[in-house]
Amino acid sequence: MSIDAGAAAPPRATRREWLGLAVLALPTMLIAMDLTVLHLALPTLTADLRPGNTELLWIVDIYGFLIAGFLIPMGAIGDRVGRRRLLLIGAAAFGAASVLSAFSVSPLMLIVSRALLGIAGSTLMPSTLSLIRVMFRDPKQQGAAIGAWAAFFGLGTVIGPLMGGAFLELFWWGSVFLLGVPIMLLLIVLGPLVLPEYRDMSVTRPDLTSAVMSVVGMLALIFSLKRFTAEGPIAEPAVALVIGLVLAVLFLRRQGRLEQPLVDLTLFRNGLFGTALGMLVLATLLQAGSQFLVMQYLQLVRGLAPLQAGLWSLPFTVGVIIGSMAGPALAGRIRLSALLAGSLAVAALGMVLLTRVAGPADLVLAVTGTGVVGLGLGPMVALGTGLIVGAAPPERAGAASAMASTATEFGSALGVAVLGSVGFAVYRADLSDSLPAGLSGSAAAEARNTLAEAVDVAGRLPSPTGSQLLSAAREAFVHGLQTSALVGAAVALLLATAAGTLLRNARMPGPPPAAADDTATSLKKVDD
Questions:
Q1: SS3 string of 260-282?
Q2: Is 106 helix (H, G, I), strand (E, B) or coil?
Q3: How many CB atoms lie within 10 A of CB 4?
Q4: Is 67 within 8 Å of 409 (Cβ atoms)?
């Protein structure tokens, strides 16, 4: 039956819809957990699989890049084949890829498994949010439902480090991936019982060529960045850079010719849209990159157990949550440009604190720095989507929301790639100059790969040499952390300046009108 969009009073949700919301919260929480839980497993994972620093960065961020790359096309596919159907297919694929990741026996196998996890994860977020929008027709109930959905995403970022740390205390590194398997099984069983099926009959077939071009081009550019920072200006990353740039140009030209492009370039005619989108990418870049490096500091420099590291990482999450709540609350009282400029200056201060971390004794300073960074970035993360959607025409609000979600995922993955690459480049250069005398060539090569491998090598060496190597490796990593934090502080100050100048006339939008895909002419309910 069709949904009557012209009714005076929208229908209120029943108990079934609220139960469905509880089921939709499960994959939302899991996606957030998977973005952070792997950081805790990196030391034991590295000791087992021995990836190089470039492979290690791919293991961490390939997941986020592929979620970002496929988020928009998967949303369009869900509109055509059915949102519930795509959600359940994605849940099954996510569970299978989780098992494959848990039992990976080589860095390449884990990178491929994480890539499959990212593609599967890209089916979950657009499906959950779009189903909520059609399950809850009453504006107040819909607002409450979306708020609960967002709260579970935040909850995933909090409990991810705790559950991951507990599992790593008891089991092997692959156990952190198995956290998602029972959640996906529960979704597959309960989804057909409490979730409706919806399709948007007006959506045409998504342009998969554009999707492939964007993902391959993006990965080529990131590959060139990683290899340049790791090995210098050699031919291989130069070729990848050219391929990435060519694909980017071809992708933009193709979008301009399509009737229903993957990315609506007309949205960028409003300067506020592009400004807010770029700022959201850079804010999440700082958030993810700083968290990644500090998590390595907690375990490999300070020497904390995984559960302890998870507990010490909570101030960062708490800072983000407080900032995310304070931003919207203050937006009506303080000029938006001043609010965001001030909060981003606070984030820069947090990064400056991280540049002062000099060794294992600076635990409180490192944790305080990340908490201040999270507090300062929270308002931008919370208000960024509202700015982006508000800058778009009402009929393009859905496309703008999808691009905002993509920007958040892309920025998170880019943060690990950029700040992680800077940190590892400094680590390799410093350690090469300070290796203890008498160290074999193979041991030196292993130690230069990652700090985790250096810790492992040091544990196998005689006491004087092992202690010297461990001290040199930790000092080199801390120097890399300081350098990355310095870069992060410069980016945060740049963002603060941009917010104060480019957003001086920006205002937060009012309540958005009903989305285009909620109209009776385009949206059809499929009988259960």
A1: CCCCCHHHHHCHHHHHHHHHHHH
A2: coil
A3: 11
A4: yes
Which residues touch 323 (CB under 8 Å, ≥6 apart)?
A: 343, 374, 375, 376, 377, 378, 379, 381, 382
With beta carbons less than 8 A apart as the criterion, state whether 33 and 159 touch.
yes
Q: Could you count the other beta carbons within 10 Å of the beta carbon of residue 523? A: 22
How far apart are alpha carbons 114 and 118 in whole angstroms? 6
Rounded Cα gap, residues 399 and 72, in angstroms: 8
Count of CB atoms within 10 A of residue 193's CB?
11
> What SS3 class is residue 153?
helix
Q: Per-residue DSSP letters for 354-416?
A: HHT--SGGGHHHHHHHHHHHHHHHHHHHHHHHHHHHHHS-GGGHHHHHHHHHHHHHHHHHHHH
Predicted local confidence at residue 99, as pLDDT? 92
Torsion 66-122-72-274 (CA) sign = negative
Q: What is the pLDDT of residue 464?
A: 83
Residue 197's DSSP bridge partners are 526
pLDDT along the chain (528 residues), means of 10: 49 78 80 72 79 76 78 74 84 91 89 89 76 74 70 71 79 84 87 78 70 81 73 74 88 81 77 84 86 85 82 83 79 83 92 90 89 88 75 65 75 80 85 80 78 80 83 89 93 91 71 40 42
Please name the residue ranges forming H helices in 297-313: 306-312
Q: Which amino acid is at 284?
A: T
SS (H, E, C) 317-334: HHHHHHHHHHHHHHHCCC
Specify the pLDDT at position 355: 93
Are 47 and 100 in contact, with CB atoms under 8 Å apart?
Answer: no
Select from 139, 130, 111, 189 the least CA-distant residue to 11: 139
* Helix locations, 136-194, DSSP H: 139-170, 175-178, 180-194
What's the maximum distance between 2 C-alpha atoms anywhere in the chain?
82
Q: Which of 277, 501, 263 is nearest to 390 (CA)?
A: 277
Radius of gyration of the chain (CA): 23
Distance from C-alpha of 311 to C-alpha of 446, rounded to nearest angstrom? 30
Query: Is the distance from CB of 261 to CB of 255 less than 8 angstroms?
Result: yes
